[in-house]
Amino acid sequence: MGFTSPYTCQKLNESTHLIIHNDKYLEQPFIYVKICPDARCVVVIDTGCGARNSEDGKSALELKDFIQTQIQQIDNSEYHFVVILYDKDEKWLSVGDACYQGAPINIMTPGGQEDNSATVIKLRCFVRDVEDSKETQTVHLASGHNSPSALATPFLQDLSEILERVSEGLVPILVTLPGDQIIPGGLLGKETFVVWHDDRGSHFSLLAPESAQRDSWGLSPLTQPDDRSCD
């Protein structure tokens, strides 16, 4: 049987391509590749699940090989792997797995919710500053799942709202799972994880340890961040 590539690709703008990883975990993460010929480099945001996919036991193409053969070959180029990147020319903000829609946002460790909330605040502050600059411009956001070109301001505001509602106990628990059902092999120990999903039509859901302190997730959902939160 022939080899089937685990990647598919489409062009988002002049310098950026979206690669979807058809992985065996069925997560289908989004990988963003920005070609920078003047700097002789390729910037890769996220690297997928690292899982191979073949029908005959042969190794799948490595991500770098796929980029070189399917997108663009830059001789002697450097590859840079990052989570968050902003392209001021394209007005395009890539956040990787920091936040996304359509699948639970993974906050795997106790205390991770605080880091997530802080990241959302920083992203909202950054987008606000860009859109409030002298040049009126709309920032688009690309995330690690399902949202390759969302409007950044409403996206981040909606996420802030569900974080606030979780902290207030207003979002129902969808399911409770032992750690070995999330990552096999005991890497998460005996921790139990909870999935929250807002039943008000939100596209966001959260996955976090049951021991997480929900009241540390609070953000200001209905207003832009004030100057103090952006310092």
Could you explain the architecture of this structure?
The protein contains three helices and 13 strands. Helix 2 packs antiparallel against helix 3 (152-167). The chain has two domains: 7-82, no CATH class; 97-134 and 151-221, no CATH class. The chain has 231 residues and is of the alpha+beta class. The longest helix is centred in the middle third of the chain and has 20 residues, at 112-131. It is 19% helix and 26% strand. The model is unreliable at 54-60 and 219-224 (pLDDT under 50). The strands form three sheets. Strands 1-2-3-4-5 form a five-stranded mixed sheet, covered by helices on one side. It has helices at 63-70, 112-131, 152-167, and strands at 7-11, 16-21, 30-36, 41-45, 78-82, 85-87, 92-96, 105-106, 140-143, 150-151, 173-178, 192-197, 205-209.
Q: How many structurally independent domains?
A: 2
Tell how many strands the DSSP assignment holds. 13
Uncertain runs with pLDDT below 50, 5 residues or more? 54-60, 219-224
Shape descriptor: globular
Mean pLDDT: 76
Strand order of the largest sheet: 1-2-3-4-5
Structural class: alpha+beta
Report the radius of gyration as a whole number of Å: 19 Å
Helical content stands at 10-25%
Count of DSSP H/I helices: 3
TL;DR?
It is built from three helices and 13 strands.
Task: Spell out the key features of this protein.
4-stranded mixed sheet; 2 domains; 5-stranded mixed sheet; single chain; alpha+beta; 3 helices; 231 residues
